[in-house]
Amino acid sequence: MRRDAEAFLVDVLDAADAIVRYLGDRDQAAYLSDDMLRAAVERRFTIVGEALNRLLRHYPDLAGTIPELGKAVAFRNILVHGYAEVDDGIVWLTIKEHLPGLRERVALLLADLEQRR
Predict the structure, then answer these.
(1) Residue 58 CB neighbours (<10 A)
(2) Rounded CA separation 75/90 (Å)
(3) 68 and 105 in contact (C-beta within 8 Å)?
(4) What's the CA angle centered on 99, arms 96 and 15, to 5 degrees?
(5) What is the pLDDT of residue 117?
(6) What is the C-alpha separation between 90 and 107, in angstroms, rounded?
(7) pTM over 0.90
(8) CB-CB neighbours of 105 under 10 Å
(9) Which residues make Cβ contacts (< 8 Å) with residue 113, sequence separation at least 6?
(10) Residue 1: what pLDDT?
(11) In the Cβ-directed half-sphere of 31, how many Cα atoms lie within 13 Å?
């Protein structure tokens, strides 16, 4: 069964919110020293990237309104296929500098879709 665009956007929001929840008030040093936390965060980033990739495949017009989509999908591919080369510092930077904007954009799109129903 084909999922609707809202389901993919909810997956992105849920995963982004989980990353924020997992980190709590931890700083970069705490993040880097906790391999289980890093694994959990990376798993959630793979969900973000995969949900956005599927959104692009099934709803390209809507996906085209998310400027960060291409980078998020590429980041997912690095986490999955280039696991040996993952730079934890880049993951941290992505959490702090890119995730909030992506989450905000996806939340606005989801609210717009829900309002149209």
Answers:
(1) 14
(2) 10
(3) yes
(4) 120
(5) 77
(6) 24
(7) yes
(8) 17
(9) 5, 6, 9
(10) 61
(11) 24
Domains of the chain: 5-116 (1.20.120)
Indicate the residue type of 80.
V
Please give the full DSSP string across 59-78, using - where no structure is assigned.
-HHHHTT-TTHHHHHHHHHH
Beta carbons of 78 and 24 less than 8 angstroms apart:
no
Per the listing, tokens 């995969």 go with: 50
Position 116 scores a pLDDT of 86
| 16 contacts 29 by C-beta, under 8 angstroms | no
Averaged pLDDT, groups of 10, the chain, 117 residues long = 88 98 98 97 98 97 96 96 91 97 97 89
Cα–Cα dist 99/84, whole Å: 22
Alpha helices in the chain (DSSP H): 5-23, 28-32, 35-58, 60-63, 69-81, 88-93, 99-116
Tokens of 66: 């998310």
